[in-house]
Design goal:
about 160 residues, mainly alpha, Arc Repressor Mutant, subunit A, two-stranded antiparallel ribbon, 6 helices, about 10% strand, globular, HTH_MarR-typ, DNA binding
Length: about 160
């Protein structure tokens, strides 16, 4: 039997869709949208970024990234700082409140995901854990990456971020 990416995708798509809906419907409501949360996670993973870098990482247009950053800034979750490498440029960074909110959301999401996994056996949990490097590889092949940033920090891969 030959396994193809299209065959696996046909099986995986409905499962991922259902998991996504269950996971995010069950989590506490937040004023932070999924797109804004993703931007915040990228700032946490990569440090201060230019709007163009955020747009590239999020695979969105610059005006969309700028609008999302404006909303995050109004909520006090990010701030703009001068780019030390180019004084004309501006980077976006997480504020202390942004770091706090991201941590809070992360904890809530870990608990929710753990609830979804509670019905699995230890062997099944091990199978999922063993498959994580494959998901990391899939994510690594998608989209641009910020140059000059580490994909691993303190021995953990960037995809270990529990808020995702």
């Amino acid at each position: 039997m030959t396994v193809s990416s299209i065959g696996v995708a046909k099986q995986l798509r409905p499962v991922l869709t259902r998991l996504y809906l269950l996971y995010f419907r069950q989590t506490a409501t937040s004023a932070i949208s999924m797109a804004q949360l993703s931007i915040m996670m990228n700032l946490q993973d990569n440090g201060p970024l230019r709007i163009s870098q955020i747009a590239d990482l999020e695979a969105i247009r610059m005006p969309t990234a700028s609008n999302a950053v404006n909303h995050l800034e109004q909520m006090g979750l990010v701030s703009r700082v001068r780019d030390v490498s180019d004084r004309r440029g501006v980077r976006v960074r997480l504020t202390e409140e942004g770091v706090r909110q991201l941590g809070k959301i992360s904890e809530e999401r870990v608990e929710q995901l753990a609830t979804l996994l509670d019905g699995l056996t230890e062997d099944e949990l091990t199978q999922i854990q063993d498959a994580m490097p494959l998901f990391d590889r899939v994510l690594a092949t998608f989209g641009p990456h910020v140059s000059g940033t580490a994909t691993e920090k303190d021995g953990e891969s960037a995809s270990d971020d529990s808020a995702r």
